[in-house]
Write a structure and sequence with these properties.
With 166 residues, the protein is an alpha+beta fold. It is built from three helices and six strands. It has helices at 2-26, 80-92, 148-164, and strands spanning 57-59, 74-75, 97-103, 106-112, 119-127, 132-139.
Length: 166
């Protein structure tokens, strides 16, 4: 009896894992395991995309009264090329990061989690008029991130500010 129960549990586990693997391999659109890049990334009229309505996104261009999404921009004295180079160096020093696009005063990177390979999209835009690096960090999937995007931005901020202090 115990052997049958053990075999049944093993079969159920195998079918579940196989089904999940099949779903991940064939997912498209906005499904739970979609890895499609968002099409709203980039700078449009001096602004990054607005934050998502879910709590797993932070942006320095969100309304400061929106405590869930707002995070302060990073002050940076220098040229756009220096600001984005500092952001790129900070990003590349972090685990799971890959720079996808670097153009002028804009940088886009993806961060992947080690186990499940979930992706977060992180963007930087240097506003030369205000000497600020604006940024947006958003989980591509799900609803909650348990503060991961905010913590990542603060780690990037520390790396950039540590390099720019006299």
């Amino acid at each position: 009896m115990l052997l049958r129960l053990l075999i049944a549990a093993l079969v159920l586990l195998t079918v579940t894992v196989g089904g999940l693997a099949f779903h991940v391999a064939t997912a498209s659109g906005d499904t739970v395991f979609s890895w499609k890049r968002p099409d709203n990334l980039g700078v449009k009229e001096g602004r990054l995309a607005p934050p998502k309505t879910t709590p797993n996104c932070v942006s320095s261009q969100a309304d400061p009264a929106d405590e869930e999404h707002y995070i302060a921009p990073i002050p940076f004295k220098g040229a756009a090329v220096e600001a984005i180079a500092a952001a790129r160096k900070a990003v590349e020093s972090m685990q799971g990061a890959a720079v996808i696009r670097h153009e002028g005063n804009y940088l886009y990177a993806e961060f992947r989690t080690p186990l499940m390979r979930f992706v977060d999209d992180v963007e930087f835009f240097f506003d030369e008029k205000s000497d600020l690096i604006h940024l947006r960090s958003a989980s591509r999937l799900g609803r909650r991130d348990f503060g991961v995007n905010r913590a990542r931005v603060e780690a990037i901020r520390s790396r950039i500010e540590g390099r720019t202090k006299a």
